[in-house]
């Protein structure tokens, strides 16, 4: 039997306000195999809030990882079990977000100060679920930013049973930089992630940060097990139109950009009964024609026409008709 290619070979990063269920459905029209993530969901939201609102998803979104944010091992374990019962593919712990809100809750990137605590979290979740438990983290934080610090952190959570680590190849600066600045100001140190893989040859290591092209993906896969794409997956989603065949030896969905829009039209029509408005979905598709002739026309049309109480799924038919008549959009 041929060895199965792991789903973590390529993934789309969890991004707050971006990787919601509508974005994930949209991406599944382009790639069936890339691992997708929820937005970070805090343990408090699951245990005290409207659980179904945060955790519901469609079967088309598989494979799908649930990213949790929290600092209490027992709460994380309980939420991991809930996630398993909902049917997620894996459970991921956020140990990389540098936002003030996350820091005030003593989780996210500030967890890298306490490797033993993160190990306790991993161990607690592993004791409750049969799913893979993974950790997404930085190469360090200010004050703990050496390769030795990184190796110690991963060694500690590895001993607790972590199944995979996803490493953003920048440190997080916890004071003085905004989350957006933390994605660009600290320099990328890809060599640290490659060194980490050399230290832990049997642990799947996935790299994240600043990766935008198929060429760059190829280069990184020569050194590590997986590549996670963040902003580029949102800005240029059709980049993934070839990855199933290139990296998983399977056929991509094969939809043209206009066919993707036709499927989104049907999705919007079906979701309208749940109160989903066209802009809830279409805002995620504004990069669909990235790099194509007419991309500006596409973005302008939907930016100007997807809002309003009278707008429905037929806005896509209007676009397809107008673009065909004007010949302004070419994929």
Major pleated sheet: 9 strands, parallel
CATH topology of the largest domain: TIM Barrel
Give the total of beta strands.
9
| CATH architecture grouping of the largest domain | Alpha-Beta Barrel
**How many domains in all?**
2
H and E order = EHEEHHEHEHHEHEHHEHEHHHHHH
Structure, explained:
The protein is an alpha/beta fold. It folds into 2 domains: 7-247, Aldolase class I (TIM Barrel, Alpha-Beta Barrel), CATH 3.20.20.70; 257-326, Four Helix Bundle (Hemerythrin (Met), subunit A) (Up-down Bundle). It has helices at 21-28, 43-48, 51-55, 73-86, 100-104, 115-128, 147-159, 179-182, 190-199, 214-221, 231-235, 243-247, 257-271, 278-282, 295-305, 314-326; strands spanning 10-12, 36-37, 41-42, 64-69, 90-95, 133-141, 164-172, 205-208, 226-229.
TL;DR?
This protein has helices at residues 21-28, 43-48, 51-55, 73-86, 100-104, 115-128, 147-159, 179-182, 190-199, 214-221, 231-235, 243-247, 257-271, 278-282, 295-305, 314-326; strands at 10-12, 36-37, 41-42, 64-69, 90-95, 133-141, 164-172, 205-208, 226-229. With 331 residues, it is α/β, with parallel strands linked by helices.
List keywords for this structure.
331 residues; alpha/beta; TIM Barrel; Four Helix Bundle (Hemerythrin (Met), subunit A); 2 domains; 16 helices; tRNA-binding
Please specify the SSE layout and strand pairing.
Layout: E1 10-12, H1 21-28, E2 36-37, E3 41-42, H2 43-48, H3 51-55, E4 64-69, H4 73-86, E5 90-95, H5 100-104, H6 115-128, E6 133-141, H7 147-159, E7 164-172, H8 179-182, H9 190-199, E8 205-208, H10 214-221, E9 226-229, H11 231-235, H12 243-247, H13 257-271, H14 278-282, H15 295-305, H16 314-326
Helix pairs in contact: 4-6, 6-7, 7-9, 13-16
């Amino acid at each position: 039997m041929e060895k199965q290619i792991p789903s973590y070979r390529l993934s789309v990063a969890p991004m707050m306000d971006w990787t919601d269920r509508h974005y994930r459905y949209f991406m599944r029209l382009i790639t069936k195999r890339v691992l997708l993530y929820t937005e970070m969901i805090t343990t408090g939201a699951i245990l005290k809030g409207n659980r179904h609102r945060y955790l519901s998803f469609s079967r088309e979104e598989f494979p799908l990882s649930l990213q949790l944010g929290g600092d209490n091992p027992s709460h994380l374990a309980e939420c991991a079990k809930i996630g398993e019962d909902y049917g997620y593919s894996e459970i991921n712990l956020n140990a990389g977000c540098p936002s003030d809100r996350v820091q005030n809750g003593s989780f996210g990137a500030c967890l890298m100060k306490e490797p033993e605590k993160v190990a306790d979290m991993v161990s607690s979740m592993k004791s409750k679920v049969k799913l893979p438990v993974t950790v997404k983290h930085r190469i360090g934080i200010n004050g703990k930013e050496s390769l030795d610090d990184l190796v110690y952190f991963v060694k500690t959570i590895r001993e607790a049973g972590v199944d995979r680590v996803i490493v953003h190849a920048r440190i997080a600066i916890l004071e003085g930089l905004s989350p957006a600045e933390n994605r660009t100001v600290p320099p990328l140190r890809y060599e640290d992630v490659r060194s980490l893989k050399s230290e832990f040859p049997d642990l799947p290591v996935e790299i994240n940060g600043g990766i935008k092209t198929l060429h760059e993906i190829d280069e990184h896969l020569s050194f590590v097990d997986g590549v996670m794409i963040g902003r580029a997956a949102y800005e240029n989603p059709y980049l993934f139109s070839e990855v199933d065949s290139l990296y998983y030896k399977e056929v991509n969905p094969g939809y043209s950009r206009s066919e993707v829009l036709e499927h989104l039209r049907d999705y919007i029509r079906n979701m309208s009964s749940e109160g989903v408005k066209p802009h809830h979905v279409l805002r995620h598709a504004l990069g669909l024609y990235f790099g194509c002739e007419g991309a500006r026309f596409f973005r302008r049309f939907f930016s100007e026409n997807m809002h309003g109480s009278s707008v429905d799924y037929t806005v896509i038919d209007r676009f397809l008709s107008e673009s065909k008549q004007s010949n302004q959009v070419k994929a």
